[in-house]
Structures are given as structure tokens and as C-alpha cells.
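User: I'm preparing a small set of examples for a lab meeting where we compare how different chains pack in three dimensions. I only have the primary sequence for this one, and I'd like the structure in C-alpha cell form so I can line it up with the others. Please keep the answer compact; I'll paste it straight into my notes.
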Amino acid sequence: MSPTALIAEDEPLLAQALCTELQRSWPALTLLPVVADGISAVQVALQTLPQVLFLDIRMPGQSGLEAAADIAEQWPTALPFPALVFVTAYDQYAVQAFEAQAIDYLLKPVRPERLERTLERIRQHLQRPPTDVGAGEPALQSLIGRLHRLLEPDTAPALAIGQTPIEPLRLITASVGATVRVVPIEQVLVFEAADKYVRVLTADAELLLRTPLKELLPRLDPVEFWQVHRGTVVRAGAIAQAVRGDNGKLSLSLHGRPESWPVSRLHEHRLRPL
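Assistant: Understood. Below is the C-alpha cell output for the 274-residue chain.
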């Protein structure tokens, strides 16, 4: 079977140019319909399971790095992860691309001779045995770990001499209409990133904060609050159970909340039986 490729690129002219060059250089490569944002890239990749991914690093909704992380989180362990190529207009992202275990990176506008070298790397990658190209849980864990390290800055950096330690978060304050609601940190069960906000859930309330989750994390006690997904932090003492579904994914429920939350492959180790 001929390999399939998915292109995620939000600039139509650049996407068309890349498609044209790919069709000219590798006629046997089947191109899926182009998507224009990271969220669509995740959805289509998981539906179609292509062998090659061309992801623009800077896209609406989700960056290429974020999309790659979400795809890896949900990728079937029985299949090798796609050959990953990041496309960018900024060559400073080249190091990030290789740190994320990408096959290669392409600078916009894509030059035919540079694309030829990338395609040769992809062909060599696809010809390798599945055990050598990233099939199975350990390979996905490694990829997810690399992507998360690129996406999440160190949440506990060493303090410079004379620098004031970060104050632990003790109270959550948020506006609810004309009222300012104050919630002690002891009542919080979940911090969940949602678009431009962070949802803060207690047993009987929901608050919306404009502070990004990555800024809240350094102020949370890592013993009390566990990050179980890139966008979800839960109170460890409130975890009721973790259940592995038919799709092999782990999800957990909390005392005091009716919802369940998916657990990232990267963070499953926290819930292994003693």
C-alpha cells in the first residue's frame, strides 16, 4: 500500500505549494485533504492514521508541537507513530523539531531540493522494521515525554541568589458577575485548562481564571496536586479510582465530582498499583 500523508498548514498558498511539490517528487504518496489548524490535525490524524505528518509549528488553536503531543497521547500502540516533519518560517524552531524526535523540519517557503532530502529521510524511516520506528508503548512514552518537555517549561526552576521564593497558592479569587468569589485551596479538586481560561472545580462550584495553568503550577504543592494530563491537575487525595477503558486509555474519577478525566500516558505511572 502507498503511504498516506497529512498536511496541517494554515496558509493556503504555502499548503498548495507543498502539495504540488510532494505530488511531483513522490507520486506514490497519497495526500489527505489539508487541514488548517492543530485541533483538526489531531482529529483527522487519529481518524485516518497516516504514515507521514507535516505539521506547521505555528497554527491557530494548537501549535504543531501541541498537536503532535495530542496525537501521540491517543495513537494506537500497535502502529508505528507517523514520520513527523515540522514546517516553520522560523529556523530557531529547528532544534525543537529534532528534540521532539521529528524526522526533519522544513523552512517556508519550502525549496524543492530541501524537500527532496526530507523525503529521502522519510522513505528510509518507513522502510525500517516497526520495532525500530516507534511502535509500542515505550516508544510513545518517549515521544510524549520529549514533546511535553518542549511544551511545558520547568515549573520549579532553581532560585537565583537573592530571588524571592514563589509564594504557594492558598486562596483562589475569581469574579462571578458582580461578586468576587474566594475559595481556599483546600477545597479545590481540579484545575483544567479550557481555551483562554482555567476551570477551577470544587465539589459544588466552578470558577474561571484567566491565569494560564503553567503559571499556576509552580504555586501548587506537587504532593497534593498531581498533573495527570497536559491540561489537567487534580487533588491527589480526592482520587476515587482509575479505570482503563476498552481503548486502553486510563481515566480517573474524583470524590465529589461526577465527571471523569483522561490520564496522559506520560503520567500513568502515578496510578500504578503499589
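A couple of notes for your slides: DSSP finds seven helices and 15 strands in the chain. The first strand starts at residue 4 and ends at 8.

User: Perfect, thanks.
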